Amino acid sequence: MSEIRGAVRPFCVAIDYDDTFSTCPETWGKVIEVLRQAGARVFCVTFRRPDMVVTDFPGEVFYTAGRLKADFMHDLKQDVHVWVDDRPELIGENPERRRFREILNEAV
Ligand SMILES: [Mg+2]
After folding, report:
1. Distance from the alpha carbon of residue 66 to the mean position of ligand 1, in angstroms
2. 38-62 per-position pLDDT tens digit
3. Domain regions of the chain by residue span
4. Residues 6+ apart with CB under 8 A from 101
């Protein structure tokens, strides 16, 4: 079995639910299984409110309730290394990366 080389451990993959996982749960289920066998931690991060329960994702589900996903997960101290999302504009930018980018821009 292969593994994710050179990755920070655990390598965390966030998969969106609506119009991503929901497009084909069987296929995404296989993808998730392959990633987990390679050592990744895979979970769902959805823009939904907690009362809009996701029932068929195979694993943990985080509900941002309309907050940008990167900020939300940063506040929970949950690392995300790779995002899989049909609407990347709803991810936003991790505040630490934003600050790093700002420092780089100030140095130029
Ligand atoms: Mg979506």
Report:
1. 12
2. 999 999 999 999 999 999 999 999 9
3. 12-107
4. 93
